[in-house]
């Protein structure tokens, strides 16, 4: 291998990436990385102003980006997201299912409304977004799907059972998608972050955040930028022989 070949492994020039939940936290960090790697980026979140601001920011990094207001719990909205990406950039090469709903309730106190709201965003949305993008992924020579799950999918999670179970189910779908779509040239993997310094984590009581930090071998929470390396590996040519896998980026929280 020479330097040119090595540099090309993470080069995403000419590819189009959809990143849900792409206006803040892990999603924005990944969107920035894709822009800096040469990809066209489509950021999606529920808030139009946040989408517009993120797209403006990404364009200052030298890439091409658009923001598409999207509710991942709304199936029509997912179709519109894919249509917008194709209309602007001509196709879809990478889908990053990062958007999540942190809603959870204690076991024994679940409501049907909370259950539906959680799984519509955390499970149904990612599965149907991939389905909507599938005709375009099949045409790509570098198709990759990344489902962002959680280290909680591998742990006893009594206080976050609803959320963690949804992420565990998305891991199961990741493996099934990988097997189903491999003959079509589409790789599908999952990234399982541990505790990351995002709004979702910061909204917890300080003692809860401290406990999450202490649960990892590195005894800290991650910066969102620390998810960039794993995500780029799984969605670039550097990971061309990786599919159906989960990469735990959790500071040593889960032995797996």
TrEMBL record:
<dbReference type="InterPro" id="IPR036291">
    <property type="entry name" value="NAD(P)-bd_dom_sf"/>
</dbReference>
<dbReference type="Pfam" id="PF13561">
    <property type="entry name" value="adh_short_C2"/>
</dbReference>
<comment type="similarity">
    <text>Belongs to the short-chain dehydrogenases/reductases (SDR) family.</text>
</comment>
<dbReference type="InterPro" id="IPR002347">
    <property type="entry name" value="SDR_fam"/>
</dbReference>
<protein>
    <submittedName>
        <fullName>SDR family oxidoreductase</fullName>
    </submittedName>
</protein>
<dbReference type="InterPro" id="IPR020904">
    <property type="entry name" value="Sc_DH/Rdtase_CS"/>
</dbReference>
